[in-house]
Specification:
The complex is a heterodimer of chains A (about 220) and B (about 180). By secondary structure, chain A is mostly helical. Chain A has 9 helices and no strands. By secondary structure, chain B is mainly alpha-helical. Helix content of chain B is about 70%, strand content about 0%. Chain B has 8 helices and no strands.
């Protein structure tokens, strides 16, 4: 058999639905689809849960400005996830490390800046409860929001679904944290790292799990029987 | 790249030319990395079928070859998963560095190369496989592994030297 000539069955199959297609847009442009989700997470969750009482003690750039910056970082991380999702475009080890670093360091730097400007410790009697409440309030908004980047990524076919999923989960988590810092009045790094950090981790895990499930579903649908 | 643009525009001859240009390399990729050589032609076909389904995910002017091989990697993953779920997987993949157990259709030379490759550190084995088996350029390998093209070339060349030495050693011990 000449391996340079496509088998007739394959050619027939291709001919049957050979309609012109438009290539996917650049990942960062596709990530803009997630922008409304980011805005809902940034504005919707603090409005729903109530803005932090001491928000007025922060300047506009330190409150809304830093949240916008964090939300933008989350969007860029989703863009990295959508790059990773395209076959043959897996991120290099350096890019993976940079993306994870951005997902950890940006919220951390913003937390420390906020604490430096407005030190507000949580209730000393019920720190665990306060941590659990914040965790819950972030996760309940962020986990459903993961569905949008998951859908975008599933339109490509990532070589490493768990990595792509973890990244869009992380990006969504960072965007959710941008909203959380507007309703959570505690700026103590311990609270933020433990409670918000665990929420970020949970959303990242949810993204990885969603991507793995989508990949398995795709495998089950397309496996030759 | 022009072939892919024409193919995305709906030209069948572009698909056939793409197949002619890449099918051999895709076949070698599967031949080097899956257990059952009988499945290779089928996997090549599945890859090009997935290329067709996913053709909109290719974005010009990016290189076509890594995109097609990305899809081939996914097809291989799906194939392995199907084997596992069917309880038919008989031995671990080459990349895992495991010893082949009972390869009925491999030649003695294939087995020796696989064994020698498994002894190399992954940092050298991967550039070598990507270049000599999958046909990637060192620039592409560098981008893929997050290292410089020169580093990829150096690692591949060191792997080649180590392979030669290992194979010469195993031939010597076989002769004894």
């Amino acid at each position: 058999m000449n391996e340079r000539i496509a088998p007739p069955a394959l050619v027939d199959r291709v001919r049957r639905d050979l309609t012109p297609v438009h290539p996917l847009k650049r990942p960062i442009v596709r990530a803009l689809v997630v922008l409304p989700v980011g805005l809902v997470l940034m504005f919707g969750s603090p409005i729903y849960w109530g803005l932090r009482e001491n928000l007025g003690a922060l300047s506009a750039w330190a409150s809304w400005g830093l949240s916008a910056l964090e939300g933008f970082a989350g969007l860029l991380i989703v863009g990295a996830a959508l790059t990773e999702a395209v076959p043959g475009r897996r991120l290099s080890a350096r890019a993976v490390a940079f993306t994870i670093g951005a997902g950890v360091l940006v919220p951390l730097a913003i937390t420390l800046t906020t604490y430096w400007m407005l030190p507000a410790a949580g209730p000393s009697s019920t720190p665990v409860r306060a941590a659990f409440e914040c965790f819950d309030m972030i996760v309940v908004w962020a986990v459903p929001a993961v569905a949008v980047p998951a859908w975008l990524a599933s339109r490509a076919w990532p070589e490493r679904p768990a990595v792509a999923g973890a990244f869009y989960g992380l990006g969504t988590g960072v965007m959710a944290d941008a909203g959380a810092r507007l309703f959570c009045w505690i700026s103590s790094p311990t609270h933020v790292i433990v409670s918000h950090g665990l929420a970020l981790l949970a959303v990242t895990a949810a993204g990885a799990a969603a991507a793995a499930l989508i990949d398995r579903g795709r495998t089950a649908m397309r496996s030759p029987r | 790249m022009q072939l892919m643009i024409d193919y995305q525009a709906g030209r069948l001859d572009a698909f056939e030319s793409l197949y002619a240009a890449l099918a051999g390399d895709v076949r070698r990729f599967f031949a080097a990395s899956v257990v059952d050589s009988a499945a290779v032609p089928d996997l090549v076909q599945q890859t090009f079928l997935e290329v067709h389904r996913a053709r909109r995910t290719y974005r010009p002017p990016l290189p076509v070859r890594p995109w097609v091989f990305g899809i081939a990697v996914n097809v291989r993953r799906r194939h392995r998963r199907a084997l596992v779920s069917a309880g038919q997987q008989r031995r671990a993949p080459l990349d895992a560095g495991a010893e082949p157990s009972s390869p009925p259709k491999d030649t003695v030379a294939d087995i020796s190369i696989r064994r020698a490759l498994a002894q190399l550190p992954a940092s050298r084995r991967r550039p070598w496989i990507l270049h000599h088996v999958h046909g990637f350029s060192f620039d592409e390998i560098g981008r893929r592994l997050g290292i410089g093209a020169d580093a990829a070339k150096l690692r591949s060349s060191r792997a080649m030297r180590a392979l030669r030495s290992l194979l010469a050693g195993s031939r010597g011990s076989d002769d004894e």
